[in-house]
Design a protein that fits this description.
The chain is of the alpha+beta class. It has 25 helices and 23 strands. The strands form four sheets. Strands 14, 15, 16, 17, 18, 19, 20, 21, 22 and 23 form a ten-stranded mixed β-sheet that branches. A six-stranded mixed barrel has the order 5-6-11-8-10-9. A four-stranded antiparallel β-sheet has the order 4-12-1-13, covered by helices on one side.
Length: 860
């Protein structure tokens, strides 16, 4: 039987060509994504950077540490405390010390946009900057940098590449990379926490890659930022630890590789790989899903097409077991060859995939494929397993072929759905629907999670795809009702052919169902969630004007805040970004974004969705939480840790609706953990002139010379609304492109095979008087009609998924419409229709070059 299987593969190579290509491509994609995924499991060990040449570094601990029943739990602090002056004095007695101060420096427009790596590079605001709610995008022409005293530059070490060190106020040394616009002798207008000033660049140092820095004289840096953020100590580490221990807790003594904790964003490399890991894992999973579906559908159709061949084998004495073994053996041969090809494709394509991820901004610039080979082995055996499993179900149908099938001449399919397929389809559909209903009833927010809205549609898609043979017939008749009544025979024949060949119709429709449902579900869900979040921002902000800094992650000068408060007719609600952390169930530390606000003015400038309590009851001893918290009873007290690590007990003053997760926590300025103001919401008093108030605010902003922006409420809401990011869009297209490629191959393979087996039908049409163009038009129309059937089924699955998302949003109190990606979905359907039409017409055109009489006499 092995020789028979090999002979069958060779003889019917057209049937197996599509399966081979689809499986090889699937294995290649799985191998490539697996290799890339393996590269995300660990970030490169770069060692200390900012303090690589410093023997000992003392700084405040940037982690909140809470002892629980399961050990110590840690979370990053929103703001790191400075080194106490008394401790600085004590450590100075041990040896030479160098004080490091880190403060924001925003350079004015100098002919190019700022270095994107410098955004939010102030180490003291690393946590709060990323959690700032609605600071708005960075202003064009403002280059955010981080300032330091020149004496600490030797700790990296930085070396002068030109010029000299700063010796007087107003002089600066800057980092300058290959594309830098700054040169020695340039005068640059800059903004610091002390106000606007002008620096003269007296020297440059090479950009080390971890920050864009501005170095000032030690005295000037101390005037701008008096607090000591880190202290370099040239003394014995044991003696330093003893002094720090006597001074109390809260300080870290860093030596060796531990000095890396003092770098800006020490965990940025590992954090950058989290999203890459999620993206590649999803891509690999969907690739596997599509490959399994395509291969299973292809083998099922191939078996259905060969029923007369199997009937002949049964007549010749072959047993059902031998027929099944032959089908599985053919699949194994194709699987091994395709998997070996996919192995090579994956190993070759993985570096290209990694480069593409970097170019698209989905992975950090240093991301590259490692030396792991286990993903290749997994991909190979997965391919063999997929091919064998895909053919296994079809082999049982082949084994049930009766010897009388050899006598069949009719092309009408019968009993297209075995009982086992009915049962499997029902189980999968019930599981998918059950998960959706359970999420909506128990936790609507869970239905909006990335894992949920990616994996749940797959279950519904599989279930509906299994029912394709049942759904295809009625839908074909319904969709072709009007074309069948138009003049000419094309519509009638297309309808009858598609209805008679249900297995062929289902095999063509299945990959279209998968691709259309995935495209509409994924893109529609992401767009719907983005619109819902934008709706929340618009409805929660009632301010007439919003004042924000000129660069993201920066704060507004205290002097400017007081000037805004003094503007006549302006009700100014000053807010600060911070975070609070709570210990849930005694084991898990959960950090929530928070805004520190003025309770007396909050109601005038904002309308957060309150479901219990009153915002006006917020004071220094209370907190406003959302429904995601375990404790949501107004009046009860909760123990929380503030952004600076302080532990306090606060009373719940009000509870907000969960929404899409953007409704954070509110505290007062006293509990902001030392965060500076990053937004001022301004409401114009009833008797005031809105134009005069706006003019006064803009005048105050211009006087600061720091790029502060005064926006209308609508402008700020539009800028702050979290739309679909470029990285998210690129990631979704990476996933969908894999599905589209597999779908195209499946369509082409199925239609080429089906058209090749229908040459006698085409010849009969020619003998009855149909011209070649008429026959080709019929083939094209039938292919497009079947694609339309798949598109309708896929759209129905997507509609169910999007309805689930809409229902979850409604239960969470968000009134927002569903966003349907009409353009993209239409383009996918059009591409599938073109592929289907070409795949059907081309082999038909080649076949019709033979005389109809000869074609009519052909035997299988």
């Amino acid at each position: 039987m092995l020789m028979l299987a090999l002979h069958g593969v060779r003889t019917r190579w057209v049937t197996f060509a599509g399966s081979f290509v689809a499986l090889a491509l699937g294995v290649g994609l799985i191998a490539a994504t697996g290799l890339a995924l393996a590269a995300t499991f660990s970030a490169p060990d770069k060692g200390p950077q900012r303090f690589a040449a410093a023997p000992v570094v003392v700084r405040a601990d940037d982690q909140l540490r809470v002892r629980t029943a399961n050990g110590v739990r840690t979370r990053p602090l929103a703001r790191t405390a400075p080194v106490p002056p008394a401790l600085v004095t004590e450590l100075a007695a041990l040896g030479r010390t160098v004080e490091d101060r880190a403060f924001p420096v925003d350079l004015a427009a100098t002919g190019r946009d700022g270095d994107p790596r410098a955004q939010g590079s102030d180490p003291r605001t690393q946590g709060s900057a990323s959690r700032a709610q609605g600071s708005g995008p960075r202003t064009q022409g403002v280059e955010p940098r981080t300032g330091h005293p020149w004496s600490v530059a030797a700790a990296a070490p930085y070396r002068l590449t030109s010029g000299r060190s700063p010796a007087a106020p107003g002089e600066a040394v800057v980092t300058a990379g290959p594309g830098s616009h700054l040169r020695t002798g340039d005068r640059v207008r800059a903004t610091t926490p002390a106000g606007a000033t002008t620096f003269t660049v007296v020297g440059t140092v090479a950009d080390r890659g971890f920050e864009s820095a501005v170095f000032l004289g030690d005295e000037e840096a101390a005037r701008i930022s008096p607090a000591v953020d880190a202290l370099v100590v040239h003394a014995d580490a044991t003696a330093v630890r003893d002094v720090v221990a006597r001074a109390g807790g809260g300080m870290d003594v860093l030596t060796g590789d531990g000095r890396r904790r003092a770098d800006p964003g020490p965990d940025r490399d590992a954090e950058a790989l989290v999203s890459v890991n999620a993206l590649l894992g999803t891509a690999a999973g969907i690739t596997l899903f599509v490959s399994v579906s395509v291969v299973a559908s292809t083998f099922s159709f191939a078996v259905a097409q060969r029923r007369r061949e199997f009937g002949l084998l049964r007549t010749a004495g072959a047993t059902p077991g031998q027929i099944r073994w032959t089908v599985v053996a053919e699949a194994a041969v194709v699987g091994v060859l395709a998997s070996a090809t996919g192995w090579w494709l994956g190993a070759t394509g993985a570096p290209l995939l990694a480069a593409r991820l970097v170019d698209a901004g989905l992975a950090p610039a240093w991301f590259a494929i490692g030396e792991q080979t286990w993903p290749l082995h997994i991909a190979f055996w997965t391919g063999v397993g997929v091919a064998t499993a895909g053919a296994l179900a079809a082999s049982f149908r082949a084994g049930r072929t009766a010897p009388t099938e050899v006598l069949r001449e009719a092309a009408v399919d019968s009993r297209t759905m075995p009982v086992s397929r009915w049962i499997l389809a029902a189980l999968v559909l019930l599981t998918g629907a059950g998960l959706l209903v359970t999420a909506l009833v128990l936790d609507p927010g869970d239905a909006l999670g990335r894992k949920a809205y990616i994996t749940r549609p797959l279950l519904l898609i599989v279930g509906v795809a299994l029912l394709a043979p049942v759904l295809a017939g009625p839908l074909v008749r319904a969709l072709t009702w009007l074309p069948a009544r138009l003049p000419g025979a094309t519509g009638v024949l297309a309808r009858e052919n598609a209805s008679a060949g249900v297995r062929r119709t289902a095999a063509v429709a299945a990959p279209v169902v998968i691709t259309v449902a995935l495209t509409a579900s994924l893109l529609g869900t992401v767009a719907t969630l983005a619109e819902a979040k934008a709706t929340e921002v618009r409805t929660a902000t009632t301010a007439d004007l919003v004042v924000v800094p000129g660069a993201e992650g920066r704060t507004l000068p205290p002097s400017f805040v007081e000037r805004v408060r003094a503007v006549e007719g302006a009700v100014a609600g000053v807010s600060r970004p911070t975070a609070v952390t709570v210990l849930e169930e005694g084991t898990a530390l959960v950090t929530s974004e928070a805004r520190a606000v003025d309770p007396a003015r909050l109601a005038a400038v904002a309308a957060p969705p309150v479901v219990a309590g009153r915002l006006t009851d917020l004071d220094d001893d209370s907190i406003v939480v959302n429904e995601e918290w375990l404790t949501t009873t107004v009046g009860e007290r909760v123990t929380v840790w503030l952004g600076d690590g302080r532990e306090v007990s606060l009373r719940i003053a009000a509870v907000l609706a969960t929404g899409t997760g953007g409704n954070g926590v509110y505290v007062t300025a006293r509990n902001a953990g030392g965060a500076g103001a990053d937004r001022i919401d301004v409401a114009v008093a009833e008797a005031a002139d809105p134009g005069a108030v706006a003019a006064a605010l803009r005048t105050a902003a211009e006087a600061e010379g720091t790029g502060i922006r005064v926006l209308t409420g609508a402008e700020w809401a539009a800028a702050a609304a979290p739309g679909m990011s470029d990285s998210t869009r690129a990631g979704l297209w990476l996933i969908l492109s894999m599905a589209l490629l597999c779908t195209g191959i499946a369509l082409a393979n199925t239609l080429v095979t089906a058209t090749t087996d229908r040459v006698r039908d085409l010849a009969v049409l020619r003998l009855t008087g149909a011209s070649v163009p008429q026959v080709l038009r019929l083939v094209a129309v039938e292919a497009v009609a079947v694609v339309t059937v798949g598109a309708v089924i896929g759209a129905g699955v997507a509609a169910v998924n999007l309805a689930g998302v809409w229902g979850a949003l409604a239960l969470l109190g968000v009134r927002s419409g569903v966003v349907v990606p009409w353009g993209t979905t239409g383009a996918v359907i059009a591409a599938a229709a073109v592929v289907a039409a070409v795949s059907a017409v081309v082999p038909a055109a080649f076949a019709l070059r033979t005389r109809p009489v000869e074609l009519a006499g052909m035997r299988e």
